[in-house]
Specification:
heterodimer; A: about 300 residues; mainly alpha; B: about 350 residues; two-stranded antiparallel sheet; 2 strands
């Protein structure tokens, strides 16, 4: 129980610290009006500091998630799924899709939903890491990408209560209509996941934009300036996002939606079928004969 | 060369490119990176990018310059005026905005180039080997993924050919389903077989359970405390005038996280088959990187770091250039010096 509380505390603190690093332009209310060289010192320092803080948050989150989630079967499963997702990203690099379209979020969302938040986080973060390693895409932007993609997978299990509620509502509606047709609930599940992918398409782009926003000189109503208030910063960022990124992210979000609606149902069925095979644990009967094989070997599924 | 020496070189390159917007120093740093990149042998087995990095760098600089010139109408040297009432775009296009955008693009292209050099010279196994011991299970996952990636691409090609033989053609999005599902299910089946093989060979991802509950929990507590200190230190550094106060949180925070990771890593004994030796060229590269970092980060008297600060606004002027700083940046050429020596020796 204490271990679980510690785990929750680590996730919350690491998540909040990472968000702080990404959202610092909004949380920097009155940065020194009297700096030695206004903006210059901080402009050079900020990307390094942001990368450091985000990198350490990702490191702590990875350490925590791997300790809790990884059995031998999960190591193999993640390795192969990360390879598959990295291959999709590699194909996307070779044949660029429209705007911010990327097929990798489809599998991150499904894996997080089926196998749980920790595995989802690892899937998101490691997909970005491995695909960056093999395509030469490692850069100071990588910690931010890993953090955000990890949270895409981590947040997916939050949909389960919503899916259950929708399915209960549908079941009640069918009862009222006295319909005898069996309904698996898969459609509502896929619809919820598709809407989730749509939302994250915009959110991912919006968060990643914060990386460069403070350093881009632009019209006064769109660019970041030291000392502005929270509301002003939000208004300016909204204007900047609408002008420069909305169309790009729209392609990414629409891509997530379309992929989920097209491939979601069969992929979800396959992953759920394999979840049963990947997560079974053999418990020997109490007082079993000592001549039986060792428990540890059986728990590993040998 | 040793991967840790390359890591030090990379940190120095990032620091140099992030610390200044003076185009002269940026050009010097990028030239150093380009020379190192051109001179070193490349890893032939790497999956190649679909475009050359120098072309992408030039594109980046051009786009950044044009984008900034179009949306930022500051500066006093007017090139031309975009008429009308087009939101964002209409107004004066200035030389200063063009130069500022190009400078930003140059820094970004330099960062891209530094990571490209690292990616081309270090094999993936060396990059995976940089993963700390505390992340042993994740290093295994990364190794599996890197190993299976070419196999996955090959399998995709085989499925595509098999479906084509059956008369399958790609006309719409739904036609990708008969390609994607066998790839997914085949991958999951392979994962099952792999996990059974790993278990049969005695793989245990959880490491050795060591000590009491407290002994197992304290590394996690150290990391939690480290994160709190780190975030607190950063907030303080951003919001008070005396920046050094922030370091009182930042430095112990980084230290505690490092300590927690080190303690977690003790669960996973590590042995290296044929460890790479540390050679003179590694020392040379490390010294060069440390020279760059010392000049950029330490308040050394007479280092000429004032010349790093430059902005083309409001009127474009020639950037300052301190020769001492320029010479220090040549520390990035450490790997190149050895490469030239070894080439001469080969002749």
């Amino acid at each position: 129980m204490r271990s679980r509380l510690l785990s929750i505390a680590i996730y919350l603190v690491a998540g909040a610290s990472g968000l702080l690093a990404l959202l610092y332009p909004f949380f920097q209310p009155a940065i020194q009006a009297g700096q030695a060289a206004p903006g210059q010192m901080r402009a050079g320092e900020m990307p390094v500091m942001m990368t450091l803080l985000l990198g350490l948050c990702v490191v702590v989150l990875l350490a925590e998630a791997q300790g809790q989630a990884l059995s031998t079967r999960m190591v193999a499963l993640l390795g192969v799924l990360v390879a598959l997702n990295s291959a999709l990203r590699f194909l996307e690099t070779a044949i660029p899709g429209p705007g911010g379209f990327s097929p990798m979020f489809f599998l991150i969302i499904l894996v997080g939903y089926v196998f749980g938040g920790r595995v989802g986080f690892l899937m998101g973060a490691l997909t970005l890491l491995v695909s960056a390693l093999v395509t030469g895409g490692v850069g100071p932007w990588l910690p931010g990408q890993m953090f955000t993609a990890g949270w895409v997978g981590m947040s997916t299990p939050l949909l389960r209560p919503l899916v259950r509620a929708v399915q209960r509502g549908q079941a009640r509606a069918r009862q009222r209509l006295s319909s005898n047709s069996k309904h698996s609930g898969l459609t509502s599940e896929v619809l919820v996941l598709a809407a989730f992918g749509l939302g994250w398409g915009f959110l991912y782009g919006g968060l990643m934009n914060l990386w460069e926003w403070p350093f881009i000189a632009g019209p006064q109503n769109q660019s970041w300036a030291a000392g502005m208030g929270l509301l002003d910063a939000l208004q300016r960022y909204a204007a900047y996002y609408l002008v420069t990124s909305l169309a790009w992210d729209l392609a990414g979000a629409a891509g997530n939606l379309v992929l989920m609606l097209t491939f979601g149902a069969p992929a979800l069925r396959a992953l759920k079928r394999f979840r049963q095979r990947f997560t079974f644990v053999y418990h020997p009967p109490v007082g079993a004969d000592r001549e039986q094989p060792p428990q540890s070997a059986l728990e590993q599924g040998v | 060369m040793h991967s840790l020496a390359w890591l030090a070189w990379l940190v120095a390159a990032i620091a140099a490119l992030s610390a200044t917007r003076n185009p002269l120093y940026l050009l010097l740093a990028v030239a150093c990176l380009a020379l190192v990149g051109v001179s070193l042998p490349q890893e032939p087995s790497r999956l190649s990018r679909p475009f050359a990095v120098w072309k992408f760098g030039l594109l980046l600089i051009g786009l950044a310059a044009i984008f900034n010139a179009l949306i930022s109408h500051y500066g006093e040297t007017r090139l031309f005026t975009i008429p009308g009432r087009l939101p964002l775009v209409s107004g004066d296009v200035t030389l200063e905005a063009l130069v500022y955008g190009a400078t930003n693009g140059l820094a970004l292209a330099g960062l891209l180039g530094a990571f490209w050099v690292l990616g081309q010279t270090l094999p993936v196994r060396a990059l995976v080997g940089l993963i700390p011991r505390a992340f042993y299970p994740l290093a295994v996952v990364a190794t599996i993924a890197v190993t299976y990636l070419p196999a996955t691409l090959r399998q995709f090609q085989q499925i595509r050919e098999a479906q084509a033989v059956r008369g399958h053609a790609l006309r719409g999005l739904r036609d990708w389903l008969p390609l994607f599902m066998p790839l997914l299910v085949g991958g999951l089946e392979r994962a099952l077989q792999l996990s059974e093989a790993m278990t049969a060979r005695g793989f245990a991802s959880q490491g050795k359970p060591v000590g009491s509950i407290w002994q197992r929990a304290w590394p996690r507590l150290a990391m939690l405390a480290g994160l709190l200190l780190l975030a607190g230190g950063w907030v303080v550094r951003l919001s008070v005038k005396a920046e050094w106060i922030g370091w009182l949180g930042l430095a112990p925070g980084v230290g505690l996280i490092g300590l927690g990771l080190w303690a977690s890593g003790l669960r996973y004994p590590r042995s290296t088959y044929r460890p790479p030796p540390w050679q003179a060229k590694d020392t040379l590269t490390l010294v060069g990187a440390l020279l760059v970092l010392a000049v950029l980060w330490l308040p050394l008297p007479g280092s000429g770091s004032v010349a790093l600060w430059y902005t083309p606004y409001p009127t474009l002027h020639i950037p300052p250039f301190d020769v001492r700083l320029g010479v220090a940046l040549l520390g990035l050429l450490g790997p190149l010096m050895f490469s030239l020596r070894s080439r001469r020796a080969l002749r």
